[in-house]
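User: Show me a protein chain along with its predicted structure.
Assistant: Here is one chain, sequence first, then structure tokens.
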Amino acid sequence: MAKFSNVFFASDFDQTITDRHGAVPQKNIAAIEYFISEGGIFCVASGRSVPMFRSRFPQVPTNAPSILYNGAACYDYRTERQHYACPLSAFAPKLRQKIEADYPDVTIEIQGLQYHYISEGKGWREDFLRSQQVPYRCSLDNIAEPWMKLVVTDGTPRRNPKDPKDVPPE
């Protein structure tokens, strides 16, 4: 029996497996490979969507399907098989309309199983999605696929501080 037989380990991806710049350090890859070689079962559990994690999946050794959308779906990139998906309720479109009416300056992003849908005129978000190789549409209307995640931001690009002391107290 191997050292990690019958041990399942799920890890977050961004700034857990990756460094703060988004790179996957070789020491993390080596540790995961060792864990798997000793009988462990390893997967990534992330808030990322199926399309957003697709380009990063090859960088991380895994031997189990990925848990995505903060747990709302389980997808196996090796077999291109979705094991489960729990879309948002039918109330989500009404919530989106309420948010848009009450907060017209926010950026809304709806994440589906195949595409991300963003508010029009959000070039900074388009740039990010392109950098992550995520297929997207600049329209929140007539979305035919299930809504997996609704993301609302203040409309400005997120900047990760280099030092925790640079994070504003709010």
